[in-house]
Amino acid sequence: MILAAIVGLFSSAALAARPDPALFATAVEAGRIETVQQWLEEGLDPDFQGDRVGSGLMIAAWEGNVAMMELFLKHGAHLDMDNRYDEQALQLAAWKGHLEAVEWLLAHGASVDRPGKWNALHYAAFADRKDIVELLLERGAQVNARAPNGSTALMMTAREGREELARLLLAAGADPRATNDSGDSALTWAMRHEHFKIAQMVSTAAQFAKAVQAAPESFGARVRSAPAPSEIEEIMRRIRLTQAAGQPVEALRKDLFAAVERFKKDSQKLVIGRVNPGKPLRRGKPQALVITARRAETRKSPQEERAELVYPKVSEEATPATGGVTEILERIARARAAGKPTGDLRKALLEAVDRFKKEPAP
């Protein structure tokens, strides 16, 4: 029923006008190859950006849709194009665990490494995609490549407790002595998050004995913030596709609100504090939390980081809450991958869902 309605929605009669970013992203996400092909043949930029994820090729990589990626490449899409989060298609496919899509991208020339930036190996290690980590290493990925904050894939496995991946990376030559811009090593992260087997793997017997005797707080505060559950992300996806098909979404909205209530019960109490001491808090609902950072030039120079609540310049009616929920879910995943606290984003997620509750169901 829903698929039939989607076909009708994207019929040739509806193709007279170019798609807006939301319609475009939904069509690619839904796998509507015929629709997308007609748009491209009518002159749509092959690197056109959707309202989420990025270009059409990136969305297809995120979905693991190789046929859709082939379509965009045929029309001139760039494999190594960056989205607004400075990510590329290869990273997105690796994050989602789409091995076939990763193989296809590498076979067609996608860059396996991105010096000084987050790369596919970092994302695959964080997401515990062992088969993709193995493939990337086979294709020449630098095992000790540094992320913008100086972290390595081994550090990420230590933080997340990925024992099997830690062994794999160490066997491939990962350096357990490497430190990031904060001076943390894989041992530091493993001890901070109480992953003692990995701590033993990445240290000598003497180093491990010393670490076990040290005060837990000497390794830094453990960030106890769980990511938004994938259940919420999947429900939002189903809502988008159902809305695009012109079908009622009331049942899905109830599923979403129930999932959010479960999420609330598992969450810490979250508070958004002042950005600049001495300045009053701005009133109204924030559109997003933006976190920016500049890598330290030397070990002695501080790493600059700024967190800022961004308020919409247009009326809230111009930005549907559904889009806000989707964007915040994406930001939570990326913040967690970078080792950043997600408390403010989690609160922003709950606020966006509250706004969505007030929207009338189609």
Brief digest:
The protein has 362 residues and is mainly alpha-helical. The protein contains 18 helices and two strands. The model is unreliable at 1-16 and 268-321 (pLDDT under 50).
Structure overview:
By secondary structure, the protein is mainly alpha-helical. It has three domains: 1-111, Alpha Horseshoe (Serine Threonine Protein Phosphatase 5, Tetratricopeptide repeat), CATH 1.25.40.20; 114-222, Ankyrin repeat-containing domain (Serine Threonine Protein Phosphatase 5, Tetratricopeptide repeat), CATH 1.25.40; 230-270 and 286-358, no CATH class. It contains 18 helices and two strands. A two-stranded antiparallel ribbon has the order 1-2. Helix 2 packs parallel to helix 4 (56-63), helix 6 packs antiparallel against helix 7 and helix 17 runs antiparallel to helix 18 (343-358). The longest helix is centred in the C-terminal third of the chain and has 17 residues, at 321-337. It is globular. The two termini are 17 Å apart. Mean pLDDT is 79; it is low at 1-16 and 268-321.
